[in-house]
């Protein structure tokens, strides 16, 4: 066990854990941040996706000791129920969630994409989500939601 400093959703935490502990367990069990889900435990389904310094990572397989000074963002850091992030609102508007289990990972992968590419094609969206599985099959609605959010975010930034 050793002390680790994590910056999660703009809050700094000091935690005493084995550095090999997967980030997912620290987020859920130690910090009470429950949006990242355990899916496969093999970094293949994307249910546990969070952002580390803006890049999507699989929290089930990333050891907490490898994240020193990186800013971690989960769905809880995107928006609030009162002021949802445009991605969250678009997923609601497009009814992109069915069971909802995959949605936090989808949102985080989409956020990483839109931070790099404000006008992605449908194919670029699909490629960005290739590592995120949805058992309910709402992929078409998810792509539509991400395109809707991209448009909203461009307008908010004053871009066409």
TrEMBL record:
The keyword Transcription regulation does not apply. Signal peptide: none annotated. Keywords: 2Fe-2S, Iron, Iron-sulfur, Metal-binding. Residues 3-78 form the 2Fe-2S ferredoxin-type domain. The keyword Iron applies. PANTHER family: BLR6046 PROTEIN, OXIDOREDUCTASE WITH IRON-SULFUR SUBUNIT. This is Oxidoreductase. It comes from Pseudomonas asuensis.
